[in-house]
Amino acid sequence: MAVLGELERAVMEALWAAGGPRTAKQVQQALPDRALATTTVLTVLTRLQRKGFVARERDGRAHRYRAVATREQHLAELMRDALDGAPDRGAVLASFLGGMAADEQEAVRRLLRRRAK
Q1: What are 71-86's pLDDT values in tens digits?
Q2: Domain-located, residue 92
């Protein structure tokens, strides 16, 4: 999976938060602290489309962009990629789980029990 740069992540966060397709102008307005030009946002959206993170659909003269995957699906893919690069997946998982809070560990146990059924 391609890695997202800081600005690409911010644009993706804006799309995920929007919950539906947005124009470049709407994405720009969702990032007021960045003072970005609409053309900059369009460039980032085009890059994200090429990388497979967003899809584009025509809406009159403009385009609307939407995230191809949810934030959760994206993060799960990053976790799978990290595990795929590990020579000892068990050790990575043990370290990851060991760093979790007790309530998060319990949530993992519940998910595993539910999946086993």
Answers
A1: 999 999 999 999 999 9
A2: yes
Residue with tokens 């460039």: 43
Domain shared by 15 and 59, yes or no: yes
Asked if 56 and 84 sit in the same domain, the reply is: no
In angstroms, the CA 49 to CA 21 distance is: 13
Which residues, 6+ apart, have CB-to-CB distance to 77 below 8 Å? 1, 69
CA distance 99 to 88: 17
Q: Whole-prediction pTM value?
A: 0.83
> In this structure, are 78 and 57 located in the same domain?
no
Beta strands in 21-104 (DSSP E): 54-59, 62-67
Task: Give the tokens for residue 22.
Answer: 């947005």
- Please tell me the distance from the alpha carbon of residue 117 to that of residue 109, in angstroms, as a whole number: 13
Per-residue burial over 14-48, b = 16 or more CB atoms within 10 Å of its CB, e = otherwise: bbeeeeebbbbebbbebbeeeebeeebbbebbebb
